[in-house]
Design a protein that fits this description.
Elements (H helix, E strand, L loop, with lengths): L1 E10 L7 E11 L4 E5 L6 H9 L6 E6 L2 E2 L5 H4 L3 E4 L13 H9 L13 H12 L18 H14 L4 E5 L7 H17 L3 E5 L3 H6 L3 E6 L2 E7 L4 E2 L13
Parallel strand pairs: 3-8, 3-9, 6-7, 7-8
Antiparallel strand pairs: 1-2, 1-4, 4-5, 9-10, 10-11
């Protein structure tokens, strides 16, 4: 589904501050799998996510999505196939627009048509039905500006909008890190449910040990720009160059 082949990214090349953020990294994510990426600050997690999303380009190597090379496509071109939920809930939505308008924008991702001002009854009903599944009562607040909602509510809606856009790959960039514990748990449970129900391919970056152990079916650890451990729970085996025999060997 997603293939990274010998990816390298070096910042400040040739300078005293040169950093090899990702080094000759090869990784493959199978369809309908939920992988969790962990590692200390500076291990290369965020750089890897930015490379996949198209925010930055690799110096070497190729990135293939469903057999299509995308490593030189900018993030706005990749957004048709790749959805991303950021750590900051403010980044995933337009605060001044209503909840319904935000969903309309998400529905038109990748479309060549101009965004229409009017929203039909059928679309409104579809959004209300989807939002009601969150169990937050937000289906009654569709005309309310997104900026008036809490961070947890906005993050939950961002997840739902990303899934409704029918993307092939979902990137979760520490989506619960900026939330209070209760909201964080709620958002992660919603994310897990959507991934399972819609058979999504997902990659979660987290510093939270509990999240790393609770969610997903594959655990990947990075250090110094390389994958040092890779355990696939479904296959009950370790991958690449690791001798890990249990998820708990990571911690």
């Amino acid at each position: 589904m997603l293939q990274l082949q010998h990816i390298t990214k070096i910042f400040n090349r040739g300078k005293a501050t040169e950093v090899a953020a990702v080094q000759d990294l090869t990784l493959q994510l199978r369809p309908a799998t939920f992988s969790v990426l962990v590692g200390a600050n500076g291990s290369g997690k965020s750089t890897l996510l930015n490379l996949i999303a198209g925010s930055i380009y690799p110096d070497n190597g190729s990135i293939l999505l469903k057999g299509r090379e995308v490593q030189r496509l900018p993030d706005h071109r990749r957004s048709r196939w790749i959805g991303r939920v950021f750590q900051n809930p403010l980044l995933g939505t337009a605060a001044s627009l209503s909840v319904l308008d935000n969903f309309r924008m998400a529905a038109l991702r990748g479309s060549t048509k101009w965004v229409r001002l009017g929203i039909g009854g059928a679309f409104r009903k579809q959004v209300a039905e989807k939002v009601s599944t969150l169990g937050m009562g937000l289906e009654n607040k569709l005309t309310q500006p997104m900026g008036t909602l809490s961070g947890g509510q906005r993050q939950a809606l961002t997840l739902l909008m990303t899934v409704m856009a029918d993307v092939d790959l979902l990137l979760l960039d520490e989506p619960s890190a900026a939330l209070d514990p209760r909201s964080a748990r709620q958002v992660m449970e919603i994310a897990n449910r959507l991934i399972v129900e819609d058979h999504l391919t997902a990659l979660l970056v987290t510093h939270n040990i509990n999240e790393a152990l609770r969610y997903g079916n594959r655990l990947i650890q990075m250090e110094n720009g390389e994958i040092i451990r890779d355990y696939d729970e479904d296959a009950k085996r370790t991958l690449d160059h690791t001798t890990v025999v249990s998820w708990f060997d990571y911690f």
